[in-house]
Amino acid sequence: MRGRKATPVSGTNDGSGYDSLRLDRTGQAEAFDAIGDRYDEAFPHKEGQVGAGDWLIESLDPGARVLDLGSGTGVPTARQLADAGFEVIGVDFSARMVTLAREYVPTATFHQLDLADLRPGGSRDLGRFDAVAAFFSLLMLPRAEIPLALRTIHHLLTPGGLLALSMVEAHVDDFEIPFLGNTIRVSGYLLEDLHKILDTAGFEIVKENSYTYAPATADVPPEEQVFLCCRRRD
Amino acid sequence: MTEQPSPREGPAGTARRGGSSSGPAPVVPLGRTPVQQMDRLQYLDVATRRIARGMDLDETLRELRWAAVPAFADAIVIHLHDPLPVGDEKSAAPVVLQLHSIDRAPEARSALLMPHAEYASVAERVQPAFAGRLAKLLLAGRPAFGDTPGIHPAVAELLGPAASAHGTLPPGRRLIIAPLHGRHHVMGTVVLLRRPDRSAFTTDDLLVASQLATHTAIGVQKAVMYGHEASVADTLQHTMLPSSLPEPTGIQLASRYLPASKTAQVGGDWYDAIPLPGSRVALIVGDVMGHSMTSAAIMGQLRTIVQTLAGLDLPPHEVLHHLDEQAQRLGSDHIATCLYAIYDPISHRLLMANAGHPPALLLRPNGHAEVLQVPPGAPIGVGGVVFESVEMPAPTGTTLVLYTDGLVESRDTDVGTGVEALRTHLQSTPHRHRLSSLERLCDRILTALAPGPRDDDIALLTARFEGFPPDSVGYWHLDPHPLTAGQARRLTRRVLRRWGLDALLDTTELLVSEVVTNAVRYASRPISLRLLRTDVLRCEVTDDSPQVPRVRQAAPGDEGGRGLFLVDRLAQRWGATRLSTGKVVWFEQQIPKDQPIQGS
Fold this sequence. Notes:
The complex is a heterodimer of chains A (234) and B (600). With 234 residues, chain A is an alpha/beta fold.
């Protein structure tokens, strides 16, 4: 889900590429704390996301270790993957979302964390994963951080590990939009740019689906959703 | 009765007997006694009061005819100026007199004017010759006897063939021709005739005729003014309402306006439907309190304000907020109610805010009808009130019913009962009508809920949601950048291919590129590109610069400026609208007819 932890603005110096960045999460997690369950009401149709989850289920061995990055309410992805018998660990930066996810998907483990905490040498190490699902979560980052986030995911995956990624197609950077009565900042790439970034980050694209999605709310305009099924190249 | 031209004979002799008697009325030669004078005054008193009572033209002239025949004359021929002059305006058009009516006593039929009991021989339409005898008579404004020297040509001019044949007109002073003269204009003429066997008119009778003509002219003028006022009010009301509703894709619309029953009873009800970016539609119904020309005038102003605010694409509660502010500038004592809704056919949602208006109803395809629960808010004009937008699903096939209180409230019914009656009526709509034409639904509603005469006007607006599948839209935010036009072109190409609209590819790409290039030049925040496929292909480019572009012819060598010129030449329709957050430039292209509908 669209979720990251509200980390205070901080500089980092750990050689992972985050050095020069100020990680500004102001208001982002708070927005999702406020949105809570309404997120799933506004986005009731999850065919694309469930389809990408199915791809993971088909492609992974039973008992595989899967990270749900930006797990939101845990529905549908963490639940779908947990029900498939995987060891599911979800992270989200919104405390409210983590609480909801723990309630809805008791068979998975959830942490209130920022993706940046998981970078090589970061403050938390959750181990390595056979797959990462990142549905509409990387778009909450400024564009400068997205390649770094993909490097982090690369680092968290075992060689040949899978990444199921979804984004909203756009060409914007840290762009404020009204969202379910709140304001959030989002970034996006056009499809061809996203392909290049994934390639640079060491992923090959196995398959891809785009949908026009009209949220069930007058507040969020229709969006082009892109689901990419990728594999860590090395 | 034999011909006895006696100047001393008055109307009193025949007056009250002539009407019912079948034979010639006996006339007792009387001197000009006080009694006779009294009779004449009494007659005039009754006659003028009757004439003055008439509210419209026909009533006034009917009273004149009844007062004149048979008491005063045996036949009366009335011509009216056509068209009747209104107010003090001088008309350059030549005077034309149109036959209005003829009345005659039963015994006069064979003897006078109408040998075949028909009027055919009386001129229907007379244009008095310039400076002719009739024109002079009209101008002079005084009644004259038929035997006045030189008057015959005027009578012949007015009555036409009927007057020209020998013996058709009664002999002696048995004809009076009286102009109907208003304040500034000739309104028409009255010809009074007596049978040859009845006593001739006296000079006093000429004064009576003058009185009758004067009162009639005043009555005609009054009726004309009154009718004019009613039609002004009516016209005002109607020009304030939409002459036709737009026909946006994704929604069907039908409306009715019923004025209050009393003539010249003007109302302040209005309704509107305004297309918004993204194929959304604003639906509005409102009601200015009171029934007067002022209500209608205020309504017209409020409707314009709402249209302007709607054009800015503000959410419903903000439209009502600004409307409330503006309304207070129109004066402190104008109160109105208004309901403002936005239907989005892509998200299948309805957004609604209310300012003291009766609630809207929703009729679902399964027959369930519900009263929409939106906080009622305070009426427009109260000031300082917070309005609230409520969002709700608007599934395809659902019908929204907006109306004014005239439909649900009357002397015998309070609003709550009326709304429930409307809901029950909608719920009982037979299945075959639920999806039949909205026009029929409107008629059914009005027949059931407003069958008879009413004290209040009624506005009714119905909207059936048709919706679009999500795949009929493409939507992207794009950072303004020198490469944005190229990005927009590639996105357009991809989506048009997905929709199987290859035939429109080249033109659309070119136009999108031009419009995006313009937008990027002034935008400081990301622009948005929206493509919509319905029965047309619509492209919308939104940016945050409020400057609305105008078409101009680019000079040779100009780098820019050709963009909108091309759009104007190549698109079927296009437009640019100022929004609260900037502007949107849109254009539409016809989708080729044989194009198979594709898409997921």
